[in-house]
From TrEMBL:
A Pfam family matched in the record: LGT
Protein name: Phosphatidylglycerol--prolipoprotein diacylglyceryl transferase
Organism annotation: Pseudodesulfovibrio mercurii
EC numbers on record: 2.5.1.145
GO annotation, biological process: lipoprotein biosynthetic process
Amino acid sequence: MLTYPQFDPVMISLGPLQLRWYGMMYVFGILSGWLLGRYRATKPWNKMTPKRMDDFLTWAILGVVLGGRIGYVLFYNPSFYLANPLRIFAVWEGGMSFHGGCLGVLLACWLFGRAHDMTFPEVGDFVSPLVPPGLFFGRIGNFINGELWGRYTDLPWAMPFPGAGGLPRHPSQLYEAALEGALLFVIVWVYSAKPRPKGCVGALFLLGYGLFRFLVEFAREPDRQLGFVALHWMSMGQVLCLPMILFGAGWLIWAYRKSA
């Protein structure tokens, strides 16, 4: 069993101003996506330009933050936030939903495409390879916060997390960082290195994320306020991943058959 490193969630304190690691992980994720996007925008086979990438950054930030927070409130703890509406704005406490953030970014892609003469699949294909690094940093933020820990296990790399009853648990945040962040980035980035059928880069991202998240949820402790929400073994995260898996796989099959 490993010992969980006791992180101070505050990175820097300047009087009443506190800079928290969790928030900085979002900064690192956005910065990495922006830099990768500017590099990707130099490729001649897409309509995005470095200038357009700069413009899209604002749309993406709004989609991630608003969608992620609203998604968490609606999917994971609506009764709590209905009783404590002001806590909705306390994003420094954690509580962001990837699926909500994904919906927010999809909406941003659609609106951005309409404003810049790009189709929704074109924007989605461009943006998808930029997302996994942000997921990596986000999961590292969850680990630093000591939240979203895994289920009990006696594996040698298990660790007891604060507030988790002292039991050794899967460091599921690190599993997700490795799969949804690092490995998914390699897969989607390599696949997107040359032109593909329209929408297929985005579809591969949805399929890959859905599969990786679905698998890791077997090691992750279900949200306490929800427990298992379907079939006595499926978590909310798994339920929300099913449409991603089905849509991603279906689009890939359809697109390649159409282009054959």
